[in-house]
Amino acid sequence: MPEEEIAIQVSSAKLHELGLSLDQIASRVSQRSLDIPAGTAAKDDGSRLVRGLNQQRDVEGFNQLPLLTEEAGRLIRLGDIADIDWRMQDDQIYLTYRGSPAIQLHLRRTENSDTLEAAGILRDWLTEQEGQLPDGVQLIPFDESWKPIQDRINLLLKNGLGA
């Protein structure tokens, strides 16, 4: 799947109006959007790690992020001065299959595992998933490298039993 990002865009007019540079805005955002370890809370036989969870993870969180306070005391949030969007990162590979968007999954097995057993597990999983997919979404296996192995085994069995 394409990598996504939260893009924060501030116009040069807003930067000038606030007397800030883009680097200063970026610095304030990174300072205020951060998960911070707060130490360990211990009681008798156990302890817990305590963290401050301020890392923003969605557009609304960044919109509400406090950026600065004006001289008059008004709080300016990032969303007040910036356009914030959730989008695909630039230069992402867009994969299609028969003209529709696609995601490619690779089944990998360990060197010593059974290829045909792994193929059976995949077939079972595909069958389970069919009824759970949203309309228009399909799972289509391709490049099934186990098939030539199965064909060879079948040929050996046929020739061995036929002799």
Using only C-alpha atoms, the radius of gyration works out to: 27 Å
CATH architecture descriptor name of the largest domain = 2-Layer Sandwich
Distance between the terminal alpha carbons, to the nearest Å?
A: 51 Å
Strand content: 25-35%
Mean pLDDT: 84
Q: What is the share of helical residues?
A: 25-40%
Number of domains: 2
Instruction: Give me the CATH fold name of the largest domain.
Output: Multidrug efflux transporter AcrB TolC docking domain, DN and DC subdomains
State the low-pLDDT regions, or none. none
* CATH structural class of the largest domain: Alpha Beta
Task: Please tally the β strands and state the result.
Answer: 8
Please list the strands of the largest sheet in the order they lie side by side: 1-6
CATH H level, superfamily name of the largest domain: Multidrug efflux transporter AcrB TolC docking domain, DN and DC subdomains
Quickly give the structural class. Answer: alpha+beta
Oligomer: single chain
Compressed to H and E, one letter per element, the order equals EHHEEHEEHEEEHH
**Overall morphology:** elongated
Helices, by number, come to 6
Largest sheet: 2 strands, antiparallel
How would you sum up this structure, described in words?
This protein is of the alpha+beta class and 163 residues long. It has two domains: 4-88, Multidrug efflux transporter AcrB TolC docking domain, DN and DC subdomains (2-Layer Sandwich); 96-162, no CATH class. The protein has helices at 12-18, 22-32, 59-63, 78-81, 115-130, 146-162; strands spanning 4-10, 35-43, 46-53, 66-69, 75-77, 82-88, 96-97, 100-101. The longest helix is centred in the last third of the chain and has 17 residues, at 146-162.
